Amino acid sequence: ANIKQTISVTDHALGIITTSEQLQTQFSRLHTISRTKPILDWATRATQLDNLEAMLSDNQTGLAKAISADFGHRSVSETQFAELFPSFTGITHAKKHGKAWMKTRRASISPLYLPAHNEIQPQPLGVVGIIVPWNYPLYLAIGPMIDALTAGNRVMIKMSESAPQFAEAFAKAVAHYFSSDMVCVVLGEVDIAEAFSKLPFDHLLYTGSTAVGKKIMAAAAPNLTPVTLELGGKSPVIVLDDANLDSVVNRIMMGKTLNAGQTCIAPDYVLIPRQHHQRFISLAKAWMQEHYPNIANNQDYTHIINDEQFERVQGYLQKLPKDSVHPLTEVAINTETRLMPPVIITEPALDSDLMQNEIFAPILPLIHYETLDDAIQFINARPRPLALYVFGNNDRAIEKVRNHTVSGGVCINEVIVHVAQHDLPFGGVGHSGMGAYHGKAGFERLSHMKPVFVQAKINGMNLLLPPYGDFFKKG
Ligand code: NAD
Question: Where, by residue number, is the active site (predicted)?
Fold first, then answer.
């Protein structure tokens, strides 16, 4: 409701959409333009990337403040390094390589067809739809936009209703830096999101929960709109017996406290030999002292986005046996401000809500395993995760984990940072998603990589023509 009050009639003309009717009209416009004026040159695409960069650079303070306001408390430093930084470096990477990515390239050809040749010609798809979640609302809007615009597409982007202040600030910023023939921003609740997912886009890239991902795919099916689904799930950590616990705790706590655990690739739970549990907990307490002293009033520590999420996670905690809950600070949960200090849970029941759902909060279960095969089997008995993390020094054991598990991505002796590598495709597998983006992989995902066979103008080989006679007869 807040959104619609401050969006004016002129804003609509600028490509900010708040109703289903505007959605249909703008989509038809973009669809038509994409067919009549495909963006074939690098200069136009580079200008879009320049616009994106200028928009971010000129508005970064306001956009970061809007995200903080939506969360109540969102560390501005986190917005800077987890959202703005990868956005800027992603734009730089695309500006540097996009011209080469879009070139038509030669592909090899069987001697049988010489002197003809083969080419692969990347083409814009047309209109790409993007649906954004609330947890990193800036980077998960900008990241897909970079790939879509570099590939010469026009973009319609649906922001999350759970981060409304950011959504509105973002829409206004986009409207001032982009023509509405190029990018339109859609604001509104789930009804608009549903209407959006039913539009006959040339591609639809959705980031959000697995449950909604299924609805998106169903909505896209009647149009045969291809989808890229960037979903969630439980990303496990395996700590090998020989791992250096100090560094393990340092990395895992960093990943679990970032954005208060509201990160799709946050380490969800840790498989770790039982003899390490107590030391893990004391190291984690010391880590909190060092990195988030005075968590009750700490500008670096983010709070839970809204009451609905807070209640969901509190519900998980309340159902656990008291002796399995190990708070890492002296500070209590604050329902008013939605502050949730990190806790470790030892050996939660595997059928508990905590272990049946993606946690998406600073709660870290420690689960013991006996042999490495047991740990691998534990992971393989569950839906394929978005990320998998393994810590240790034994290269053969690490290789075994890599080879015998399937996950969207992997970090070895690290967490989370694989998402920021522009030369690595980012995406899930199975229930954690389909299709990957970022960098060249994202460019190709949102292009049509068109195969073209070019016959030689002279000496073109005469393919076998009828009458075939005995040519195909065996013997
Ligand atoms: P969500 O699924 O509730 O909402 C995401 C978007 O979907 C919003 O813009 C919303 O308007 C839209 N939406 C909601 N219902 C819809 C419907 N029926 N039809 C069409 N659109 C609909 O997800 P969320 O709570 O905003 O995000 C958290 C989830 O996203 C977590 O599971 C997390 O792991 C996942 N996630 C994944 C990645 C990734 O890159 N794989 C990144 C961030 C978050």
Answer: 230, 264
Largest CA distance in the chain: 89
360-401 pLDDT per residue, tens: 999 999 999 999 999 999 999 999 999 999 999 999 999 999
Ligand 1 center–CA 179 separation, angstroms: 27
Q: Ligand 1 in contact with 192 (CB < 6 A)?
A: no
Asked if the ipTM is above 0.90, the reply is: yes
Between CA 400 and CA 69 the distance in angstroms is 45
> Is residue 45 pLDDT above 80, yes or no?
yes
User: What residue's CA is closest to ligand 1, atom 23?
Assistant: 208
Atom of ligand 1 nearest to the CA of 265: 34
Active site residues: 230, 264
- For ligand 1, the distance from its centroid to the CA atom of residue 146, given in whole angstroms, is 19
What does the pLDDT read at residue 371? 98
Buried residues in 48-57 as b, exposed as e (16+ CB within 10 A): bbebbbebbe
The per-residue pLDDT of the chain, averaged, comes to 95
Cα of 252 vs its chain's centroid, Å: 20
Q: Assess whether the C-beta atom of 83 lies below 6 angstroms from ligand 1.
A: no
Q: What is the pLDDT of residue 3?
A: 44
Q: Please report the pLDDT score of residue 472 as a whole number.
A: 73
pTM beyond cutoff 0.80:
yes
